[in-house]
Design brief:
The structure is a single chain. This protein is mainly β. It contains three helices and 16 strands. Strands 1-2-6-5 form a four-stranded antiparallel β-sheet, with no helix packed on it. It has a four-stranded antiparallel β-sheet with strand order 4-3-7-16, with no helix packed on it. A hairpin with a 5-residue loop joins strand 12 and strand 13.
Length: 266
Amino acid sequence: MLYLKASQSNTINVTWTERATNATIYKLILTNIAKNTSTVVYIDAISNASSYEERYDRFTFTLGALEKGQYKYEVLQDANGYAAGDALGGGLFVFEDSGYAYISAAADQATDAPWGCQGTDISGTLNAVGTGIANTALIVATCLTSGISARICDQLTLNGYSDWFLPSLDELAQMYTKLAADGLGNFANHTYWSSTQQSATQAYTIDMNNGNQGTHAKDNTSNRYTRAMRRFLMGTPRVVETGLAYIEPATETYVAPTNNNTYVSF
């Protein structure tokens, strides 16, 4: 059951009960039935909820002022509500693309690993978002050298996940834009390898100090950092609860009108 009450400042307190973890994201959709206008709020158990009682799995948070009236509400569990830097899937949420959540490891995997196979053309690596997995597989299959950046990511098991890869150039650029540029992710002020080859002797990098794209010799190990990425399909948001509620902007207890709906106030 969703409980709605307003204070004198017409601020709405919303509480419902749901078994959750601290990483669970919810989307609350409140639709004014008369006007067919909707308000959408993302809530999680740490940063958005003004209180979260773990013992009862109860969330309480504050909405802005809403008009008096009858509302339809829907509560969804929805990964699309994550912000860059949120803990998720064994690392830090970076961005979403085509239904996939892209996750950065929370710390570097290496500070001096080479890209590998200097002078060997590993053709077919691409720049775009979504290509890091294939790039990594191609590098590992073609370059048999141990300790190279792509192999470190490919063999990584971290926080229960073993599907890590070396990000493509565009995926790595998102790590800078969404995380490093805002001081998130514990990145060093040095260049990081992408899984995108530029030539038989050069591979693309991103400088996490300023976001600049560059190329470096594939056998270079001086301040060449490695940061793994993984992704997973977020899927369709799960409907947690739906129903009707009445918002009464007053401090006194609201008495429900006589009909088949049950309204609850504190």
